[in-house]
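ok so I'm stuck.
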Amino acid sequence: MSKKILVTGALGQIGSELVPELKSKHGKDDVIALDYSSPPDDYEGLLLEGDVRDKEVLSELWEKYDFDEVYHLASLLSATGEKKPDLAWDVNMEGLKHVLDLAKEHDTKIFWASSIAVFGPNTPREKTPQHTILEPITVYGVTKVSGELLCQYYHEKYDLDVRSLRYPGLISWKEKPGGGTTDYAVEMFYKAVEGENYICFVDEETRLPMMYMEDAIRGTLKLMEAPEEKIKVRTSYNHSALNFEAKDLEREIQKHYPDFEVEYKPDERQKNADSWPDSVDDSKAREDWGWDHEYDLEKMVKVMLENLERKLN
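replied:
not stuck anymore, here's the structure
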């Protein structure tokens, strides 16, 4: 029996890679994509233009398709959110509340994307535990902490099967970055392949948890496919693969592009980066539902450059 699946924020960095994977598993007619932006001309499948803040739009979709699963990815990211905090609150919180309310009515399984932005300057920086201090300094982080608690509340009160991952910085060649603090990593790849040097907005010693997008998509699907009794965390699971300094990434890229150089000029985004962990302990995800990553720094850099070379040239 086929599933009907909704993906919000379908044209974003995660959605643009998750949607094709879901289509390949479930068929393109059973995956309905929703995004605030209008669909590109070459888009294959059902992509609707809509705003997750509009509950009526979401409700009409639910009534029409009777979704079995929803991947709620629509969100304003950290750097963009600091420029538009009111909009970030509305999109990130109103949208999630609408999705949870409709899921409760229709008994729909939900995936919601959280982030390492839930952590703050008072959080332990090394091997940040699953259960720890959550005192973020960005409105994006505040919405993610609030969202995690809301997800847990809907599970406890209404027995809603809602699952979540705290994504680290995600690195992908398919879509350009969408306004996050960890975007410097993707920008570095683009500049190298384009034959330009890069001015980096974080310090060279800035170390952050990162992940190649293919691992992130695989982890998301593995979490959603796990038996319900295996899911022990209903806020959001720590989800990790790599951690490296900005300078480490520059050096690894230079093995392929020896003339590539980076100048480090930290801006206001450095404050966000400094409030986040150096590394994250995701042992709960590994124990509960068998998470394991495949890409280390060397493998990720090689694959990123190969794909970007094809894309840009």
